Structures are given as C-alpha cells and as structure tokens.
Amino acid sequence: MHKIYRSAPAYYEVTKPRIQIMLLFTELCAMMVAHKGLPDFRVTCAALLGLALSSGGAAALNMWYDRDIDAQMERTQKRPLPSGLITPLEVLVFGFLLISLSQIVLFVWVNPLTAVLTLLGAFYYVVIYTMWLKRKTPQNIVIGGGAGAFPPLIGWSAVTGQIGLPAIIMFAVIFMWTPPHFWSLALYRSSDYARAGIPMMPVVHGARATKRQSVLYAICLLLTSSLLYFTHTVSSLYLIIASSVGILFIVFTVLTLFEADTTYVWARRTFAYSLFYLPLLFIFMIVSSAI
Ligand code: HEM
Ligand SMILES: CC(C)=CCC/C(C)=C/CC/C(C)=C/COP(=O)(O)OP(=O)(O)O
C-alpha cells in the first residue's frame, strides 16, 4: 500500500494528463453543442470519467510499449518507465485496468455506442498508431492522429446516442489539426526522433517537405472548420472566429516555411499557437451554438 502511495505521481504521469485535458475538453464541447447547453449532469460526469479512464489507460499502454524509445529521447527519458519509478508489468496492468473500468462506467451510465467508440479510440491509439504505424511510416501521425480525434464522436454519442454530422466535422477538424500541431514540434525535435529511429516526417523527408505539408494541412483545417457553419449547428459568429484563427494558423505555418532550417523560432511559435487554436475554436462552437 505504501509503495502504491509513493508511486502515485508516476501512475498519474503515465496517463499523459496534460494531453487528456485537451481530449476531455473537446469531448465536453461536443456534448454541449449536441445538447445546445449543459447536458444531464450524471451523463456528463460519466462520459468525462469514461474517456479519462480510457485515454489514460491507452496512454499508459503507449508508455509501456514505447519504453525503449522513450529512454533514448531527451524529451521523454525522464518518464516513469525509463526512470525506473514503476515496472513495465505494473504499467501494463494499470493500462488494461483503466480501460476495463472505463467500459463499465460507459456501459452502465452512458450508452453502448459511447462505450464501443471509446474502446475503438483506445485501440486506434495503442495498436494502430503506437504498435503499428509509429515506427514504420512518416505518415504515422496523419493516420494515427485520428485516435486523438475520437472525443467529439464520443461526446456527441453520449448525449444523442448516435454519431451526428457535426461530430464527424469536429473529428475531421482535429484530424487536420494534428499534422501542423505535431510537425511544428517535430521540426525542432528531429534529432531526438532520428536517434531513436522513429521515421517522423522531418527525419525521413526533411524540414522543407514537412513545412510544406504543414501549410497544406493548415489550409485543409481552415476549410474543414468552416464546414460546421453549413450544418446549421453554429451561428455566423463561429464562421468569423474560425476563419480568423484558421487564417492565422496558415500564416504561422507559412512563416515557418520561410524561416531558415537552422532556427526554429516560428516552428516553436506554431506549436504554441496550435495549443491555443484548438480550445479557442471549440469554445466558439459552444458559444455560437447557444446564441
Ligand atoms: C499522433 C498525434 C500526436 C502526436 C504525435 C502529438 C505529440 C505531441 C508532443 C510530442 C507534444 C509535446 C510534449 C512535450 O513537450 O513533452 C505534444 C503536446 C501536446 N499535445 Fe499533442 N500530439 C498528437 C496529437 C494530439 C491531440 C489529438 C491532442 C488533443 C486534442 C494533443 C494535445 C496536446 C497538448 C494539450 C499538448 C501540450 C501538453 C504537453 O506539452 O504535454 N496532441 N503533443
Ligand atoms: C480513448 C481515446 C480517444 C484515446 C486517445 C488516446 C490519446 C492519448 C490520443 C492522443 C494522441 C497523442 C497525444 C499522441 C502522442 O503521440 P506519441 O505517443 O508518439 O507521443 P510521445 O512521443 O510524447 O509519447
């Protein structure tokens, strides 16, 4: 018992808590847009808890599988497994336990579709992204990034019992957002990935190709985010905000394209902006769906 208490921060860390906040936030926004306000308190809490348990469990399984490469990268070598704070077996059991608990919560207090979608999201992240694509292809995060786009589908189904078109558009928004989000960071972390032998885009195709593709995804993101307006779920306020922040995202990726490959000032700014862009866009989905 004493050991578990001492290891609690390590268990918390393997759930990738900071990324979870964004996943839960996009789920909550989808629930509020679907309901046009605050949905039933019990369903909201259960859906948030279910996703937190499942994505936390999936992140733990990702940490379990990636413990060899995490030990080789500067950014990840202080994580609980490379540091030896907890054992691989403990993390493996913890991951499966969280995902199982999530299934119970969602089946009992939400609905079967939400439980199945959440399990699919975890499977996508752990098996398709982590175990299959991450070490094989520079398209790893394009295809695998779809895992992180599940929360709006999960939130929408928790409230309505089905997958609506607006939720599919929200899924597509996160899908298009992921490449410029990650590649801007990968540009200035590429030596880390090269050392660990991970075929991230800048390592395999170089900085220029990565930057060019980021611009293309940022343009697709602007177009995808605008689509929500045409589902009559949100007002024109959303269209104005989505276009403004979307154009700004394109500007950031273009400035990154034109900066020298020795300095990554704009790449760092683009990464920071990506973390500001997504919550802002989702907040305006709620605001403009309620007015
Ligand atoms: C395959 C897709 C993705 C990859 C490879 C990826 C990778 C990363 C990396 C390497 C960081 C930096 C962490 C650090 O500096 O230690 C990061 C930060 C972050 N990512 Fe992503 N990400 C992906 C998708 C997502 C998605 C879908 C979300 C949520 C919607 C998300 C939310 C965040 C947040 C909130 C942070 C900042 C918190 C932090 O630095 O720990 N990411 N991401
Ligand atoms: C149930 C459900 C929707 C689960 C989603 C799980 C999840 C945590 C998705 C986010 C995607 C993500 C943060 C990838 C990080 O990639 P990485 O593992 O390559 O990053 P790292 O190098 O920091 O470990």
TrEMBL record:
Pathway: Porphyrin-containing compound metabolism; heme O biosynthesis; heme O from protoheme: step 1/1. Belongs to the UbiA prenyltransferase family. Protoheme IX farnesyltransferase subfamily. The chain crosses the membrane at residues 21-38, 44-65, 85-109, 115-133, 140-159, 165-188, 214-231, 237-258, 270-290. It is found in: Cell membrane. This is Protoheme IX farnesyltransferase. The lineage of its organism: Bacteria, Bacillati, Bacillota, Bacilli, Bacillales. It comes from the Bacteria. PANTHER family: 4-HYDROXYBENZOATE SOLANESYLTRANSFERASE, PROTOHEME IX FARNESYLTRANSFERASE, MITOCHONDRIAL. Its EC number is 2.5.1.141. It catalyses: heme b + (2E,6E)-farnesyl diphosphate + H2O = Fe(II)-heme o + diphosphate. The gene is ctaB. Converts heme B (protoheme IX) to heme O by substitution of the vinyl group on carbon 2 of heme B porphyrin ring with a hydroxyethyl farnesyl side group. GO terms for molecular function: protoheme IX farnesyltransferase activity. Signal peptide: none annotated. It is a multi-pass membrane protein.
